Write a sequence for this structure.
């Protein structure tokens, strides 16, 4: 049954619109599911590393990198991907039992240790040899993390030209995570820098042959302007890619180099605790899935959700346990949106309870939540007005098993969502108020998302089960 639609109303820069409830008797359809989340995890960083390796299947070459000192693993990811190898993390003086089991499972013919003996000891090398009898062993190690990254670039160029070279901070690692994933997918090199000193300049000069472009990841706080100036003096193209923070930088990196997400999947790792993301860069290279970073409890903004929509990433592979990537974070829900949605639900129920003839509270419904959040995100991505209703509302509500449904939509502008204001404006409109107070409704879904235009978009989906 078609829904009557009210005309758009613009009130003090905020647009609102309502779709009246339709009551019909319909067969229950499969639920309109929320974002599908897979999780690759283990009780510790080493078990998680082994689980990622298992996810990728078999490999004849294994790279062993430190699970406690991250620079070597960051720089190794493009090389590992280019060689169709696996990367496993190890402790400095002993190979953890989960990694031992994975080495035995893979039975590699070659093991490459990344980093010097202060990082990965000779005892670990001997243990690795015993775990894979007959495998060749080698070590890639420079005098420091910068030189090790340069040696890894040399190794990479045995497999691919690597004319594009990312330059990332050797001190502040989050920016290199997203860059490493893109480098692993595209055959780019990645080198680390701690500043434009003579050592870095000499190391770079020795590898200028075949280099056509330098990609500097992160702001000048991460990779200084002195480094950018040094790179420009080489005569090569220099491009800096940065965002307001580590999460926004990861989005900016993907915007520059990711056009699609194969099979509709993206990888999501913590931007605060790095071990799980180290293997994620290799997984990105092996599967083609883009890697994004998240604030562990929830997304800091809707930027990842918006970019996931751009590349067609419907589903998420969360790397690490709930402390690293929470359920809300895996659903790409940002912290402000979560708080605003809870406030709106509470305000709706408070209004229903205060009527002369009170009606019961509306319970949050997972499917309606996903439906509301999906449309809020689409409005944010497309920069729509606050009076455009979900064109798939009928089909999605039926798929959620609803007998009747309705929708309020709206938007506000500002740095933070304003649930009190949007509720006041909905309650000033008879059509919106009718949806909020309808006694037949017993379920609700709430969606809140921010667009790059600065507007916050709100969706209330009402349902009768």
């Amino acid at each position: 049954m078609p829904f009557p639609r009210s005309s758009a109303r613009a009130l003090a820069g905020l647009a609102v619109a309502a779709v009246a409830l339709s009551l019909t008797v319909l067969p229950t359809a499969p639920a309109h599911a929320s974002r599908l989340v897979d999780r690759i995890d283990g009780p510790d960083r080493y078990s998680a590393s082994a689980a990622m390796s298992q996810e990728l299947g078999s490999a004849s070459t294994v790279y062993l990198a430190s699970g406690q000192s991250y620079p070597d693993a960051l720089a190794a990811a493009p090389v590992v991907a280019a060689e169709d190898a696996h990367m496993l993390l190890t402790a400095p003086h002993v190979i953890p039992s989960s990694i031992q089991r994975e080495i035995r499972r893979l039975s590699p013919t070659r093991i490459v240790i990344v980093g010097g003996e202060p990082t990965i000891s000779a005892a670990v090398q001997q243990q690795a040899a015993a775990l894979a009898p007959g495998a060749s062993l080698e070590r890639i190690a420079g005098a420091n993390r910068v030189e090790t990254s340069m040696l890894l670039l040399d190794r990479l160029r045995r497999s691919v030209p690597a004319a594009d070279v990312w330059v990332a901070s050797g001190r502040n690692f989050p920016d290199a995570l997203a860059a490493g994933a893109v480098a692993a997918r595209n055959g780019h090199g990645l080198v680390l820098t701690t500043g434009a000193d003579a050592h870095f300049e000499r190391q770079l000069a020795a590898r200028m042959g075949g280099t056509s472009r330098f990609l500097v990841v992160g702001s000048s706080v991460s990779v200084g302007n002195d480094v950018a100036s040094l790179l420009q003096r080489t005569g090569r193209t220099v491009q800096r890619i940065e965002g307001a923070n580590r999460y926004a930088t990861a989005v900016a990196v993907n915007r520059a180099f990711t056009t699609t997400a194969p099979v509709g999947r993206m990888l999501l790792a913590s931007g605060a605790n790095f071990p799980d993301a180290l293997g994620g860069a290799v997984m990105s290279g092996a599967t083609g899935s883009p890697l994004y970073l998240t604030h562990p409890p929830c997304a800091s903004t809707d930027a990842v959700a918006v970019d996931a929509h751009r590349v067609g990433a419907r589903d998420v592979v969360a790397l690490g346990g709930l402390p690293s990537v929470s359920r809300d974070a895996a659903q790409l829900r940002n912290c402000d949106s979560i708080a605003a949605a809870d406030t709106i639900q509470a305000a709706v129920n408070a209004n229903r309870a205060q009527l002369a003839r009170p009606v019961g509270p509306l319970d949050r419904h997972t499917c309606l939540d996903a439906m509301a959040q999906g449309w809020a995100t689409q409005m944010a991505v497309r920069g729509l007005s606050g009076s455009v209703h979900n064109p798939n509302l009928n089909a999605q509500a039926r798929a959620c098993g609803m007998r009747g449904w309705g929708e309020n939509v709206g938007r506000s502008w500002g740095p933070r969502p304003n649930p009190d204001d949007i509720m006041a404006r909905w309650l000033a409109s008879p059509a919106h108020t009718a949806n909020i107070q309808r006694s037949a409704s017993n379920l609700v879904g709430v969606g809140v998302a921010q667009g790059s235009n600065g507007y916050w978009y709100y969706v209330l989906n009402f349902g009768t089960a």
In short: The mean pLDDT is 91. The two ends are 17 Å apart (CA to CA). The longest strand covers residues 14-23.
